[in-house]
Amino acid sequence: MKKEKKFFNGNFQKCLRMTFGLLLSFILAFNCYSQTEEVLDNKKVVELTKSNLGDELIIGLFSSSTCNFDCSISSIVQLKKDGVSEKVISEMMKRCDSQKNVMKKEMDFNNPSDMHEPGIYFYVQEGNTNVLRKLYTTVITGSQSGGFGTALAQHFTYGLAKASKKSSLDGVTANVKGKSGSVFYFYFEGSSQNSNLSNWWFTNATSPNEFALIKLEVKDQHREFKYGTSDAYTSKTGVDEKQKIPFTFEEIGKGIFKVTPKNTLTAGEYCFIYSATVPTAYTNDKVFDFSINY
Q1: Which member of 90, 237, 252, 291 lies 3.0 to 4.6 Å from 228 by CB, making a disulfide possible if both were Cys?
Q2: Can you tell me the distance from the alpha carbon of 210 to that of 203, in angstroms, rounded to the nearest whole number?
């Protein structure tokens, strides 16, 4: 019995030591990796060259490291003087060009004068720069006409009381947010050849004049707007002119329009709607919503 207990204790301690050893090895390996991962610059390349690592090995390190090379003419001349081969310098220049292309694409995307994917974009300030944020469509989830109070009023007025027709959107705020004084840019395809279901507004329409800007009313867990009225004898559909927020627009390029609200938008929820057809839960059932939060 004592021998079995001794055998068990010995094996347990052995397993414990092995587990601890493996864990320690993993920690050390991870620590070494973290410490050796560094940014490659011109100075490091010169050091690697003088260590006689060879061109292929140095170039291989470019792919597994963060590169921050200076590829100015004077720096390239200095690299050559320091013994860096033309092959390595050529790869360094390719890395510089790649970084410049990425930066240029980012700058071009935020240039409102360049054509973008059809749609409405919010030109908002982030930090010290202005960026374009696309307004994606939000589906109208419900439509209603009046309520209990309206039904009661219509009953006692023999249907003469007006009932408001309203459309609602889920949620109390939009995903895209900006500040007062921001402007918008509309981009139109100008051709039906590339039309698709997600951008049909910008194939049918030709200018922002076919859209309406309105402020949404926040109620409980949704936002809503009125799209018409009705009584026992008449029914009127369409966005009320009193709800529309006036804006001006100018064409700054073919199919590119800059849109500016005439009055500064106060904090709240807003949307652009295509006003050629009535927006309800069953037709033209999407709006381009955004928030003004400061």
Answers
A1: 237
A2: 12
Q: Is the overall model pTM greater than 0.85, yes or no?
A: no
Quick check: 131 and 110 in contact, CB under 8 A? yes
3-state secondary structure of 212: strand
Distances (CA, A) of 231 to 78, 162, 227, 228, 278: 84, 5, 14, 11, 18
b or e along 3-23 (b: 16 or more beta carbons within 10 Å of the residue's beta carbon)?
eeeeeeeeeeeeeeeeeeeee
Q: Give the model's pLDDT for residue 148.
A: 38
Q: 3-class SS at 86?
A: helix
SS3 content of the chain, % helix, strand, coil (to 5): 35, 30, 35
pLDDT of residue 36: 46
The DSSP string of 16-44 is HHHHHHHHHHHHHHHHHHHHH--EE-HHH
**Contact status, residue 113 vs residue 252, Cβ threshold 8 Å:** yes
Looking at the DSSP bridge assignments, the partners of residue 185 are 121, 258
Question: 77 Cβ partners below 8 Å, 6+ apart?
Answer: none
Give the integer Cα–Cα distance in Å for 89 and 97: 12
> What's 56's DSSP letter?
H
Indicate the SS3 state at residue 59.
helix
Asked if pLDDT for residue 30 goes beyond 70, the answer is: no
What's the mean pLDDT in 131-140?
90
For residue 24, is pLDDT > 60?
Answer: no
Q: SS3 for 235-261, per residue?
A: EEECCCCCCECCEEEEEEECCEEEEEE
Beta bridge partners of 124: 131
Both tokens assigned to 82:
């320091």
Non-local CB neighbours of 111 within 8 Å, separated by 6+ positions:
none
Q: Minimal CA–CA distance to 261: which of 183, 185, 157, 179?
A: 183
